[in-house]
Amino acid sequence: MKTTRKLMAGLVTGVLLVLIPMSIAAAAPLQYEMYNGGGMGVLYHDETYLGGSPPGNENLDYAPLWGGEGQITNIAIGTYDPSDVAWVGWGYWDPFVTIDLGAIVQVKQVSIHTLVNSSAAIACYAQVKLWFSDDKVNWNASETYLTTPADKAEGAHWVNTQQFSHAARYVRADFTRVGTWTFVSEIKPDSVAIPEPGSLLALATGLIGAFGLVRRRR
Ligand SMILES: [Ca+2]
Ligand SMILES: [Ca+2]
């Protein structure tokens, strides 16, 4: 019994040692690219967007914003108030956002923080089509999420796509709008790191070592 417990403890420790760095490796997005929000002058831009070469203009309607980060991945989310600076809003425009996750990871779902404010003509998009790529050139897979009545309900809330599993470094979200305005304050791809052959080898070696130690002590 004692030996079995030791072996189990060794197994659990080994698995944890691999899983902890894996969850850290599934890190926050490195950068994203999109056309800036716009349609009503100074409101609804991605005012904090930084990066890119040449730098995009974060204060210009529909300006290309490439190679940096801003409000779409800064964790802050918008309130029901459309003038909340956290929102990026596109008027008469079907936005897309391509997120670089920094490494090829297993993408499981995408969550999009969205505003529905009917008195301000802001509606939930009809659908979001997700594309997956390792190199931003070849898009290997796609998933289409049709928004539900709950997604279209009045308020500021998360729209969570269906679950799937695609290995990708880049995730592109193409929105098909309904009505005049589409408002998004955050896009969060949920992913897990793909274990490298080296870490699997380390796990196997560790487990064999632990097993050998237990056997010797018997
Ligand atoms: Ca945000
Ligand atoms: Ca904004």
Brief account:
This protein has 218 residues and is of the alpha+beta class. The chain has helices at 2-25, 197-217, and strands spanning 31-35, 50-51, 64-69, 88-91, 96-116, 127-133, 139-146, 155-160, 166-176, 181-193.
Task: Indicate the CATH topology.
Answer: Jelly Rolls
For the largest beta-sheet, the strand count, sense and barrel status come to: 10 strands, antiparallel
Give the beta-strand count: 10
Helix content: 10-25%
Bound molecules: calcium ion
Name of the CATH class: Mainly Beta
Number of domains: 1
CATH architecture: Sandwich
Q: How many individual helices?
A: 2
Name the structural class.
alpha+beta
CA radius of gyration is 22 Å
Distance between the termini: 11 Å
Percent of residues in beta strands? 35-45%
Q: What is the arithmetic mean of pLDDT?
A: 86
The SSE string, one letter per element, is: HEEEEEEEEEEH
Spans of at least 5 consecutive residues with low confidence: none
The 3D shape can be described as elongated
